[in-house]
Every structure is written in C-alpha cells, then in structure tokens.
Amino acid sequence: MHETKSFCRLCIAACGTVLTVDNDRIVDIRGDRDHPISNGYICFKGLQAPAAHNDVSRQRYTLKRNDRDEFERIDTEQALDEIAAKLHVIIDRDGPEAVGLFRGTAGFHTSTAFRMTNEFLRALKSPSLFTTLTIDQSAKYIAVGRLGHWHSGQVHFEDADVALFFGSNPLISHSAGGFLVSDPVKRLRQARARGLKLIVVDPRETETAKHAEIFLQPYPGQDYAIAAGFLNVIFREGWHDAEFCARFVEGLDALQTAVEPFTPDYVAKRAGIDAGALRAAVELFAVQSKRGGTVTGTGPNMAPRSNLSEHLIQCITVVCGRFKREGDLMPNHDPLQPPTEWYAEVVAPNRPWENAAPSRIRGVGNLYGEKLTATLADEILTPGQGQIKALIIDGSNPGNSVPEKQKMIKALRALDLLVVIDPHITTTAEQADYIFSPKMQYERDDIPITLGGPLYSDAWTQYSPAVISPPADGDVIDDWYVFWSLAKRLNLPLAVGDVPLNMEQPPTSEQLLELGLRGSTITLDDIKQSPDNFLHWQQPSVVKPARAESTGRFAVAPAEIITEIAEVAAEPQADYSHYPFRLIARRMRDLNGSIGMEVSTIRQRNRFNPLHMNPLDIEQLGLHAGDYVEINSEAGAIRAIVQPDATLRHGVVSMSHNWGRADNDPASYDAHGASTNMLICNDRIFETINAMPRMSAIPVAISGVAIRNTAII
C-alpha cells in the first residue's frame, strides 16, 4: 500500500489529490493540502473516485449490439475492424460529412482524446463536430464575436473590489472561468475579508448568493431586462467611464437610447425585484467600486433571449471600463499556450458565423468550427446532402443532456452507426451499436484542460502519469486509441498539429501530450522536472499599452441588438395563466452534468431528481413534501416528486435536467428520475446564430397526482 499525488479531472478546477493505492487499486482519496491552488480542497464528486473506478456499474469490455438487440462482448480490434468497414461504406456513399463526432465533458477533460478527436475529423475532412459547449453557455461566444473583447481581459477576482454574478453559482459549479474555480468557498471568504463586494442576480438564493451584499431575486428569464436597467441607470447618472468609452467604444449613444425605457421602476415591475435595490446594486458596482466585472452562468445562457442577455451584461463591464489597464499585472498566462504579450486594447468583433455556410437546419451556421448541438437530432433525421449517418460520441450522454429528448433518442436510433466511448451504460450508450470502455481518470497520463484562454486566476499546470493500471480482467483502452485505430483502418494521415503520426505503431499517451504542447510556453519535461509534477508559473508580466496599429473598438450597439431591445420593450406582457410557474435548471452538488449518474455511492445520495418548490407554493397547491406531481409545458409532460426549497422565489421551481432513461417511464422515476428535456422543443423558441433553445425559465403547470411517498424525501 502506498500514497501518490495526482489531480482530479471531473471539472476545470483540477483539484490536487492524494490517492491511497493497494494492489493497483484505489482504496482512498483526499485533497492534497500541499497543492498550491486547491489547498486540500476536494468536492464530493472528486471523493467518489475509488467508487467510480471500482464500481460494479463500470463496463470493462468492448460491447456490440447483436441480432437479438442485446449487447455482447467483442474483441476490441474486431470491433474496430467492423466499425471501419461500416464507415467506409458511409463515406463512399454519403461523403465524409455524414460522419459526425460528439464530444462531452469527459472528452474535454481527457487531454489526449480532446486533441485526437479534432485531428480525426480534420483528417477525415468532416465538418460535423458537435460538443456540449454549444448547448451550455454558447451566448458567451456570440457576445465575443459581436461585441469584441479586451485583449488582457477583466480584472482578476483577487484584485477586484466588486463582482456582479448573473445566474452563476461557482461555489457549486467551479466553472466561472477565472472566478472561484479552485477552493471556491475559502477564496470567496478571503476576498470578502479584504473588501470584495458581491452582487448576485438569481431566482434562487444559491450558495453563492448567501455571501452577497446585494441579492436581486427576479423572475427567471429577465436577465436582459435587468442588464438593460443597469445600463439605463449608469447612462442616466453619468456613471460610465467616459474617457474609456470615447477611445474604445462605438455605438454608445445608440445603446443609451435603446435602454431608455428600462427605468428602475419598469424593470422592477417586469422582473419582480425592488427598484431601490436595483439602483443600489448599480451604484455599488459603478460608483462605490472601481475594479471588478461581470460573471454569467447557465442561468442567463439557458433562458430565452440568452444572446441579448449576455451581450448586455458584458456591456456593463465595457461601459464601466472594467478591464486590466496598461501597467496592470498579468499573473495568469496559461503555460499550456504559446508565450503571449498582453495589450490594453480591444480585439474587434469578427462575427465568425457570418463566414460559415448556412446550415440546412433552421438556417444557422456553425460556431467557431462547431455545428450546433440543438440541431443534431434534425441533422440526423433530415434526409439530403449532409445528413449524418454515423456518430461517434466520446465522453458524453446527449440522450439525456440535449433538449427535446424524444427526438434526440429517435435520432440516435435512426443512425446507420452509433459508437459510444463511455465507462457506463448510459441512456445514450443503450442506443449504441458499439460501446468502448475507456480508461478512467487515474488510469491514464494527463494534464489539465486548456481551451486557449486563461481558465484560472493562477498560472499553473500539472502532469499526472497513470496512478493505477486498468482492470486486469477487462478490455479497457484509451479514448484516443479508437480514433487512431479507425484512422489507420481508413488510411487517413493522422497528425497532431503539424506532426504526422506513425500509423503503423500507436503512440503512447505521454507522446501525445508532448506533441500537444508543441509551441506552448513549457514542455512536458518542464512539468515533470517540477516537484510533484506541478508547475506554478512564476513569470508574471504587465499589460502593455495599445499597439499603434490597433484600431479595434467594442461594438455595443449592433443593429440586431438594438432591434431586439426595442422588441423586448414593446412586447406585451405574456399570458402564462395556463403555465403559472417557471422551471429553471439546477446543478446537483454530487454530479457534473450526468457524470457519476451510475456510480453507486452517488446514487445512494441521489436516487432521482426532485422538483424543488418554495414551501408557500407547495401549500397553496395543497401539496406536501413527497407528493408526486405532473409537470406540463407546451412541449410535453413529466412526473416528479416535490421537495421543499425555501431558497426559491415564489412561482419558481427547479429541477436537474440530466436524468431519466430513454422511455422516461413515470413508473421508473424512483430509480432513474425524469428528464426536463421532455418539456423543451428545440425549434419553437430558440436563438438566431446559435440555435440555443429555451432550457430554463420554462413556463410550466404543476398538478398533484394521487400518489404520495414521503419516505423517499
């Protein structure tokens, strides 16, 4: 028995871990107190690693669907032979674009697979990449492309005296991108002790909201109105940074005129908040504080008019000039990226979607090289040139996570070939033709995720070689091996960047990591030569003045934004008398999306996903904790069990959305939960550009059914 250090790969926090290993088996885990970033912190999800690796739910063999519609074991190489043969037929008949790839959270957090999936599609010359990014917070990418962005970024959380959070709860999600990622509770307490003021806008008094100086608890789906209200007060009082705006912003007058109807009284009535509290929040952000910006999460990004919300929220940061300026310290250069110098200048909006050919599905294009996940089912089901006939899914469960679940399951079943790489038989894997069982996180060499920009306020990275071996009695492989092997069988010249791979002899994971770091600030050897394979980058730089050739300006008032603001201001109050509640999405502390859903220790604590309701709403409906209810929307209906939650405002209910099996049978709710994606229709209410459907703030009606089981609650 021995201990060894590593890091967790369930989310971007990448907390340091200490593993106890006995006979090549993880028997215990704890947070690494010597880790300079996570400082011993580890969440419940990360603590389930021994169970996740050793659980009976884990699949240890390659499986194939047989003629009896059952899964049976198959040799991995034979499976790859059969899949390659089927792909040959599809590519010859329908073209390479008929082969799609879907990458999910687990695929993102496997560095070798993350790179290899892109290279496989590049070699295949298929544009059909889908990921969870375009169904999560894609409005952020739209805002950057339409508004522009500041080259050196917002003020770091550690240097801020204010932070304005819209629908984001980083104390649970660990995913606010530079804000409270690692060891979030301790860092927030330290920040507040030194004077940070927190403003939170959320329909639920979240764990983060409990620390706020000002908490605005609106009706869901009103983030754009509240952001417009912020801008209205800022402009009316002259609280914007006039000097910054004169130099770096265009369209300021048009934006100011557009938000004039959004007075505090109007916004308060529309959003269900107090006008005085709104004004106080604006004053705290724009006048009483000088450094700090805005943070958004799935709240505004999954609600209606998400692109407008994100644009206007980012405009609050812009008009107040809340960015790192010339001479400010830049401590967080990502060492996994090429060396970078930072400038106090605007990177002009480039609207990349305008350079993409319109999709045959709802006229949308793609987003930064990705097709849009909300259109995936239609891309499979709609005949014609470009129809997807084969799909490879790495580390994701779109059968549960993609809205309009009925259509998504139908589409998965309609494919000529569905290949899933997943250690569990998920709702998606149940539909597959072949399932590969990948190595789990501590069985593979890895480094933390990098997405081309700083995810952390600290500059660091870590290398972890495999801590244990895969199960000796199984047939477990690296995710990347599937793609290398298929490329070999399809005679595709696979490369990593500009370095061709040997297609006769498979590389090692360590070699792939080395190749992936070509052009980065550091090499894999640099990390491995650091204590505990942990490199804390100690070469801060300062923000340089804008370059003479820089002419970029923020575009705060694009024509379509001004038109949409006018539409919002003029629209009549919606009649939701038949659907009096608003259902919002909810993260569960013990799960990262659907990851962990099959692990027994997690399921013992989370048997299903309850419907959380304000106790007053429960009482007014004549319900009790533990009652079964039916939830109806315009798109469908599901059944759930009521659980009181006083943190929700009156008229708002919340429920985690990655649950339920394919049939969503109410009779199996106690075992599998229910899918809120049954309540969503992708093509009824959706955003232009990114086709993002309404996944939160869904109008619903709730009625009791004649069943009660208080023992479950």
Tally of individual domains: 4
Uncertain spans: none
Molecular shape: globular
CATH architecture heading of the largest domain: 3-Layer(aba) Sandwich
CATH topology of the largest domain: Rossmann fold
What proportion strand?
A: 15-25%
Structural class: alpha/beta
- How many strands appear in the DSSP assignment? 30
For the record, what CATH class of the largest domain applies?
Alpha Beta
Helix count? 26
Instruction: Give the radius of gyration.
Output: 25 Å
Q: State the end-to-end CA separation.
A: 40 Å
The profile of the biggest β sheet is: 7 strands, mixed
Fold blueprint:
Layout: E1 2-7, E2 16-21, E3 26-31, H1 44-47, H2 49-54, E4 63-65, E5 71-73, H3 76-94, E6 99-103, H4 105-108, H5 111-124, E7 129-131, H6 133-136, H7 139-147, E8 149-150, E9 162-166, H8 170-173, H9 184-193, E10 197-201, E11 214-216, H10 223-237, H11 242-248, E12 249-250, H12 252-258, H13 264-271, H14 275-288, E13 294-296, H15 298-302, H16 306-319, E14 329-330, E15 346-347, H17 376-381, E16 390-394, H18 398-401, H19 405-414, E17 417-421, E18 434-436, E19 460-462, H20 479-489, E20 495-496, E21 499-500, H21 509-516, H22 524-528, E22 534-536, E23 541-542, E24 554-555, H23 559-570, E25 581-585, H24 600-605, E26 611-613, H25 615-620, E27 627-632, E28 637-644, E29 652-655, H26 669-672, E30 698-708
Parallel strand pairs: 6-7, 6-16, 9-10, 9-13, 10-11, 12-24, 16-17, 17-18, 25-29, 26-28
Antiparallel strand pairs: 1-2, 2-3, 4-5, 4-18, 8-15, 14-23, 19-22, 20-21, 25-30, 26-29, 27-28, 27-30
